[in-house]
Amino acid sequence: MSLLSARGLHVTFPGRRGAPPARAVDGVDLDIGAGEIVALVGESGCGKTTLARSLLGLVRPTAGAVAFDGQPLGYSSGALRAYRKRAQLVLQDPSGSLNPRHTVYDAVAEGLRIHGIHRSERDERTAVAEALARAGLRPPERFFLRYPHELSGGQRQRVVIAGALVLEPELIVADEPVASLDASVRGEILALLLRLRDELGLSALVVTHDLGLAWNIADRVAVMYLGRVVETGTVESVLTRPQHPYTRALLSVLPESEGAPVVLTGEPPDPSRIPSGCRFHARCQLLASGEATPVADRCRGEDLPVLPGGGERSVACHWVTTA
Protein backbone atom coordinates (compact mmCIF):
# COMPACT_ATOMS: atom_id res chain seq x y z
CA MET A 1 0.00 0.00 0.00
CA SER A 2 1.25 3.48 -0.86
CA LEU A 3 2.18 5.83 1.96
CA LEU A 4 0.83 8.82 0.01
CA SER A 5 -1.54 8.66 -2.94
CA ALA A 6 -3.47 11.12 -5.06
CA ARG A 7 -6.37 10.19 -7.29
CA GLY A 8 -7.90 12.43 -9.96
CA LEU A 9 -6.35 15.53 -8.42
CA HIS A 10 -7.37 18.91 -9.85
CA VAL A 11 -6.39 22.36 -8.59
CA THR A 12 -7.95 25.36 -10.35
CA PHE A 13 -7.36 29.04 -9.59
CA PRO A 14 -9.76 31.82 -10.66
CA GLY A 15 -8.63 33.92 -13.61
CA ARG A 16 -7.91 37.60 -13.26
CA ARG A 17 -10.14 40.26 -14.81
CA GLY A 18 -12.38 37.84 -16.62
CA ALA A 19 -9.60 35.56 -17.82
CA PRO A 20 -10.29 31.80 -17.92
CA PRO A 21 -9.46 29.88 -14.73
CA ALA A 22 -5.97 28.44 -14.47
CA ARG A 23 -5.99 24.63 -14.29
CA ALA A 24 -2.68 24.32 -12.45
CA VAL A 25 -3.18 20.61 -11.73
CA ASP A 26 -5.51 19.02 -14.25
CA GLY A 27 -5.95 15.37 -13.37
CA VAL A 28 -3.09 13.58 -11.60
CA ASP A 29 -2.73 10.15 -10.05
CA LEU A 30 0.43 9.72 -8.00
CA ASP A 31 1.67 7.17 -5.45
CA ILE A 32 4.67 7.34 -3.11
CA GLY A 33 5.60 4.14 -1.32
CA ALA A 34 7.20 3.76 2.09
CA GLY A 35 10.92 4.42 1.83
CA GLU A 36 10.61 5.52 -1.80
CA ILE A 37 11.99 8.70 -3.36
CA VAL A 38 9.92 10.02 -6.26
CA ALA A 39 11.15 12.90 -8.41
CA LEU A 40 8.53 15.20 -9.90
CA VAL A 41 10.16 16.98 -12.83
CA GLY A 42 9.15 19.59 -15.36
CA GLU A 43 9.84 23.14 -16.47
CA SER A 44 8.64 26.20 -14.55
CA GLY A 45 4.90 26.71 -14.74
CA CYS A 46 3.99 23.06 -15.31
CA GLY A 47 2.17 22.77 -11.96
CA LYS A 48 4.61 20.64 -10.00
CA THR A 49 4.86 22.98 -6.99
CA THR A 50 1.07 23.35 -6.82
CA LEU A 51 0.75 19.58 -6.94
CA ALA A 52 3.29 19.20 -4.12
CA ARG A 53 1.50 21.78 -1.98
CA SER A 54 -1.85 20.10 -2.55
CA LEU A 55 -0.37 16.76 -1.47
CA LEU A 56 0.63 18.43 1.81
CA GLY A 57 -2.80 19.99 2.35
CA LEU A 58 -1.45 23.51 1.84
CA VAL A 59 -3.68 23.93 -1.23
CA ARG A 60 -7.09 22.28 -1.16
CA PRO A 61 -7.81 20.44 -4.42
CA THR A 62 -10.76 21.51 -6.54
CA ALA A 63 -11.50 17.84 -7.23
CA GLY A 64 -9.97 14.47 -6.46
CA ALA A 65 -8.60 13.12 -3.22
CA VAL A 66 -5.35 12.69 -1.29
CA ALA A 67 -4.80 9.78 1.10
CA PHE A 68 -2.00 9.19 3.58
CA ASP A 69 -1.32 5.74 4.99
CA GLY A 70 -4.62 4.59 3.54
CA GLN A 71 -6.70 7.32 5.19
CA PRO A 72 -8.29 10.23 3.27
CA LEU A 73 -6.71 13.58 4.06
CA GLY A 74 -9.00 15.74 6.16
CA TYR A 75 -8.98 19.52 5.94
CA SER A 76 -10.07 20.51 9.42
CA SER A 77 -7.42 22.38 11.39
CA GLY A 78 -6.95 19.40 13.71
CA ALA A 79 -6.58 16.89 10.87
CA LEU A 80 -4.09 19.07 9.01
CA ARG A 81 -2.12 19.71 12.19
CA ALA A 82 -1.75 15.97 12.78
CA TYR A 83 -0.90 15.33 9.12
CA ARG A 84 1.82 17.98 8.97
CA LYS A 85 3.64 16.29 11.80
CA ARG A 86 3.91 13.19 9.60
CA ALA A 87 4.60 15.00 6.31
CA GLN A 88 7.02 17.91 6.23
CA LEU A 89 7.95 20.49 3.57
CA VAL A 90 11.52 21.52 2.79
CA LEU A 91 11.68 24.66 0.62
CA GLN A 92 14.32 25.60 -1.93
CA ASP A 93 15.40 28.87 -0.31
CA PRO A 94 16.79 28.24 3.18
CA SER A 95 17.36 31.96 3.74
CA GLY A 96 13.66 32.63 3.21
CA SER A 97 12.66 29.63 5.33
CA LEU A 98 14.57 30.75 8.42
CA ASN A 99 13.69 33.72 10.61
CA PRO A 100 16.86 35.86 10.72
CA ARG A 101 16.05 36.81 14.33
CA HIS A 102 15.87 33.20 15.53
CA THR A 103 18.85 31.12 16.53
CA VAL A 104 19.40 27.72 14.97
CA TYR A 105 18.15 26.13 18.18
CA ASP A 106 14.86 28.06 18.09
CA ALA A 107 14.41 27.39 14.37
CA VAL A 108 14.65 23.63 14.87
CA ALA A 109 12.66 23.59 18.14
CA GLU A 110 9.84 25.64 16.61
CA GLY A 111 8.08 22.57 15.19
CA LEU A 112 8.04 20.88 18.59
CA ARG A 113 6.46 23.95 20.12
CA ILE A 114 3.90 24.50 17.35
CA HIS A 115 2.72 20.90 17.56
CA GLY A 116 2.52 21.03 21.33
CA ILE A 117 5.01 18.25 21.89
CA HIS A 118 5.57 18.88 25.57
CA ARG A 119 9.10 18.11 26.57
CA SER A 120 11.27 19.19 29.43
CA GLU A 121 13.99 21.64 28.52
CA ARG A 122 16.47 18.77 28.62
CA ASP A 123 14.36 16.57 26.33
CA GLU A 124 13.83 19.41 23.86
CA ARG A 125 17.54 20.12 23.80
CA THR A 126 18.25 16.44 23.13
CA ALA A 127 15.69 16.29 20.31
CA VAL A 128 17.13 19.41 18.65
CA ALA A 129 20.67 18.07 18.96
CA GLU A 130 19.70 14.73 17.43
CA ALA A 131 17.93 16.42 14.50
CA LEU A 132 20.93 18.67 13.79
CA ALA A 133 23.30 15.72 13.98
CA ARG A 134 21.16 13.69 11.58
CA ALA A 135 21.20 16.65 9.20
CA GLY A 136 25.00 16.62 9.29
CA LEU A 137 25.68 19.55 11.63
CA ARG A 138 28.13 18.16 14.15
CA PRO A 139 28.74 18.76 16.96
CA PRO A 140 25.19 20.10 17.11
CA GLU A 141 25.71 22.18 20.25
CA ARG A 142 28.17 24.30 18.32
CA PHE A 143 25.29 25.59 16.15
CA PHE A 144 22.66 26.21 18.84
CA LEU A 145 23.28 29.93 19.30
CA ARG A 146 24.19 30.81 15.73
CA TYR A 147 21.95 32.89 13.49
CA PRO A 148 21.21 32.14 9.83
CA HIS A 149 23.49 34.90 8.55
CA GLU A 150 26.41 33.20 10.31
CA LEU A 151 25.95 29.99 8.29
CA SER A 152 26.82 28.96 4.77
CA GLY A 153 24.05 28.16 2.28
CA GLY A 154 24.56 24.44 2.74
CA GLN A 155 24.45 24.76 6.53
CA ARG A 156 21.22 26.77 6.34
CA GLN A 157 19.63 24.06 4.19
CA ARG A 158 20.72 21.46 6.74
CA VAL A 159 19.05 23.52 9.50
CA VAL A 160 15.81 23.55 7.47
CA ILE A 161 16.06 19.76 7.05
CA ALA A 162 16.73 19.38 10.79
CA GLY A 163 13.60 21.43 11.50
CA ALA A 164 11.63 18.85 9.53
CA LEU A 165 13.39 15.85 11.06
CA VAL A 166 12.79 16.94 14.66
CA LEU A 167 9.13 15.94 14.26
CA GLU A 168 10.14 12.45 13.07
CA PRO A 169 8.03 12.59 9.87
CA GLU A 170 7.38 9.69 7.53
CA LEU A 171 7.43 11.83 4.37
CA ILE A 172 9.43 14.84 3.24
CA VAL A 173 8.38 16.97 0.27
CA ALA A 174 11.47 18.83 -0.94
CA ASP A 175 10.77 21.64 -3.43
CA GLU A 176 13.95 22.29 -5.45
CA PRO A 177 16.06 21.42 -2.37
CA VAL A 178 19.43 22.28 -3.94
CA ALA A 179 18.48 24.91 -6.55
CA SER A 180 19.91 27.81 -4.54
CA LEU A 181 23.12 26.03 -3.51
CA ASP A 182 26.58 26.00 -5.04
CA ALA A 183 27.42 22.96 -7.13
CA SER A 184 29.99 21.84 -4.54
CA VAL A 185 27.27 21.64 -1.86
CA ARG A 186 24.48 20.05 -3.90
CA GLY A 187 26.00 16.59 -3.80
CA GLU A 188 26.28 16.74 -0.01
CA ILE A 189 22.59 17.58 0.42
CA LEU A 190 21.51 14.87 -2.03
CA ALA A 191 23.70 12.34 -0.21
CA LEU A 192 22.08 13.46 3.05
CA LEU A 193 18.58 12.81 1.70
CA LEU A 194 19.60 9.35 0.54
CA ARG A 195 21.16 8.58 3.91
CA LEU A 196 18.01 9.70 5.74
CA ARG A 197 15.96 7.38 3.54
CA ASP A 198 18.27 4.45 4.31
CA GLU A 199 18.60 5.12 8.05
CA LEU A 200 15.10 6.36 8.92
CA GLY A 201 12.97 4.80 6.17
CA LEU A 202 11.83 8.25 5.06
CA SER A 203 9.80 8.65 1.90
CA ALA A 204 10.37 11.74 -0.21
CA LEU A 205 8.85 13.65 -3.09
CA VAL A 206 11.57 15.77 -4.69
CA VAL A 207 10.26 18.55 -6.92
CA THR A 208 12.83 19.67 -9.49
CA HIS A 209 13.38 20.92 -13.01
CA ASP A 210 16.73 19.11 -13.09
CA LEU A 211 16.62 15.60 -14.55
CA GLY A 212 20.25 15.12 -13.56
CA LEU A 213 19.23 15.53 -9.92
CA ALA A 214 16.42 13.03 -10.41
CA TRP A 215 18.89 10.50 -11.80
CA ASN A 216 21.11 10.82 -8.72
CA ILE A 217 18.47 10.56 -6.03
CA ALA A 218 15.15 9.09 -7.19
CA ASP A 219 13.77 5.57 -7.39
CA ARG A 220 10.96 6.68 -9.66
CA VAL A 221 10.26 9.77 -11.74
CA ALA A 222 7.08 11.51 -12.88
CA VAL A 223 7.44 14.03 -15.72
CA MET A 224 4.84 16.79 -15.59
CA TYR A 225 3.65 19.11 -18.33
CA LEU A 226 0.83 21.66 -18.17
CA GLY A 227 -0.87 20.23 -15.11
CA ARG A 228 -0.60 16.55 -15.90
CA VAL A 229 1.96 13.73 -15.63
CA VAL A 230 2.95 12.76 -19.18
CA GLU A 231 5.52 10.03 -18.43
CA THR A 232 6.29 7.97 -15.36
CA GLY A 233 8.31 4.92 -14.38
CA THR A 234 11.53 3.91 -12.68
CA VAL A 235 14.26 6.50 -13.01
CA GLU A 236 16.39 4.12 -15.10
CA SER A 237 13.62 3.34 -17.58
CA VAL A 238 12.51 6.93 -18.07
CA LEU A 239 15.89 8.64 -18.16
CA THR A 240 17.75 6.04 -20.23
CA ARG A 241 14.86 5.29 -22.64
CA PRO A 242 12.63 8.37 -22.68
CA GLN A 243 9.55 7.93 -24.83
CA HIS A 244 7.53 11.12 -24.53
CA PRO A 245 8.89 13.89 -26.80
CA TYR A 246 8.76 16.35 -23.88
CA THR A 247 10.94 14.08 -21.74
CA ARG A 248 13.35 13.71 -24.65
CA ALA A 249 13.57 17.49 -24.95
CA LEU A 250 14.32 17.90 -21.24
CA LEU A 251 17.03 15.24 -21.38
CA SER A 252 18.61 16.63 -24.53
CA VAL A 253 19.99 19.68 -22.73
CA LEU A 254 21.93 17.69 -20.13
CA PRO A 255 25.73 17.93 -20.61
CA GLU A 256 26.11 14.15 -20.96
CA SER A 257 23.36 13.77 -23.57
CA GLU A 258 24.21 12.79 -27.12
CA GLY A 259 23.11 14.77 -30.15
CA ALA A 260 21.90 18.34 -30.48
CA PRO A 261 19.63 19.87 -27.85
CA VAL A 262 15.94 19.94 -28.73
CA VAL A 263 14.65 23.51 -28.88
CA LEU A 264 10.94 23.61 -28.13
CA THR A 265 8.96 26.05 -30.24
CA GLY A 266 5.64 27.69 -29.53
CA GLU A 267 4.28 29.30 -26.40
CA PRO A 268 5.36 28.14 -22.92
CA PRO A 269 2.73 26.35 -20.82
CA ASP A 270 -0.33 28.44 -19.92
CA PRO A 271 -2.65 26.66 -17.45
CA SER A 272 -5.54 28.95 -18.41
CA ARG A 273 -5.36 27.86 -22.07
CA ILE A 274 -4.92 24.11 -22.16
CA PRO A 275 -5.26 22.94 -25.78
CA SER A 276 -7.48 20.12 -26.94
CA GLY A 277 -5.92 16.74 -27.59
CA CYS A 278 -2.39 16.21 -26.38
CA ARG A 279 -1.50 19.28 -24.33
CA PHE A 280 2.06 19.20 -25.71
CA HIS A 281 1.15 19.05 -29.40
CA ALA A 282 1.72 22.77 -30.14
CA ARG A 283 5.40 22.44 -29.15
CA CYS A 284 6.02 18.83 -30.13
CA GLN A 285 9.18 18.30 -32.17
CA LEU A 286 7.78 15.08 -33.66
CA LEU A 287 4.79 16.90 -35.10
CA ALA A 288 6.93 19.82 -36.26
CA SER A 289 9.33 17.49 -38.11
CA GLY A 290 6.52 15.48 -39.71
CA GLU A 291 7.53 12.25 -37.98
CA ALA A 292 4.19 12.06 -36.17
CA THR A 293 2.07 13.00 -39.18
CA PRO A 294 0.13 9.67 -39.12
CA VAL A 295 -1.34 10.56 -35.72
CA ALA A 296 -1.42 14.35 -36.13
CA ASP A 297 -5.22 14.56 -36.01
CA ARG A 298 -5.35 12.51 -32.82
CA CYS A 299 -2.60 14.63 -31.27
CA ARG A 300 -4.58 17.81 -31.94
CA GLY A 301 -8.04 16.58 -31.05
CA GLU A 302 -8.08 13.40 -28.94
CA ASP A 303 -7.50 13.69 -25.22
CA LEU A 304 -5.17 11.29 -23.44
CA PRO A 305 -6.11 9.45 -20.23
CA VAL A 306 -4.65 10.26 -16.82
CA LEU A 307 -1.65 8.02 -16.22
CA PRO A 308 -1.77 5.56 -13.31
CA GLY A 309 0.01 6.67 -10.17
CA GLY A 310 1.94 3.48 -9.41
CA GLY A 311 5.35 2.23 -10.45
CA GLU A 312 4.50 0.87 -13.91
CA ARG A 313 6.01 2.54 -16.97
CA SER A 314 3.39 4.77 -18.62
CA VAL A 315 3.45 7.42 -21.35
CA ALA A 316 0.71 9.83 -22.46
CA CYS A 317 1.54 10.17 -26.15
CA HIS A 318 -0.47 9.10 -29.21
CA TRP A 319 2.69 8.57 -31.28
CA VAL A 320 4.25 6.26 -28.69
CA THR A 321 1.10 4.20 -28.13
CA THR A 322 0.64 3.59 -31.89
CA ALA A 323 4.30 3.15 -32.87
UniProtKB/TrEMBL annotation:
<dbReference type="InterPro" id="IPR050319">
    <property type="entry name" value="ABC_transp_ATP-bind"/>
</dbReference>
<dbReference type="Pfam" id="PF00005">
    <property type="entry name" value="ABC_tran"/>
</dbReference>
<dbReference type="InterPro" id="IPR013563">
    <property type="entry name" value="Oligopep_ABC_C"/>
</dbReference>
<dbReference type="Pfam" id="PF08352">
    <property type="entry name" value="oligo_HPY"/>
</dbReference>
<keyword id="KW-0547">Nucleotide-binding</keyword>
<dbReference type="InterPro" id="IPR017871">
    <property type="entry name" value="ABC_transporter-like_CS"/>
</dbReference>
<dbReference type="GO" id="GO:0005524">
    <property type="term" value="F:ATP binding"/>
</dbReference>
<comment type="similarity">
    <text>Belongs to the ABC transporter superfamily.</text>
</comment>
<protein>
    <submittedName>
        <fullName>ABC transporter ATP-binding protein</fullName>
    </submittedName>
</protein>
<keyword id="KW-0813">Transport</keyword>
<dbReference type="InterPro" id="IPR003593">
    <property type="entry name" value="AAA+_ATPase"/>
</dbReference>
<feature type="domain" description="ABC transporter">
    <location>
        <begin position="6"/>
        <end position="251"/>
    </location>
</feature>
<dbReference type="InterPro" id="IPR027417">
    <property type="entry name" value="P-loop_NTPase"/>
</dbReference>
<keyword id="KW-0067">ATP-binding</keyword>
<dbReference type="InterPro" id="IPR003439">
    <property type="entry name" value="ABC_transporter-like_ATP-bd"/>
</dbReference>
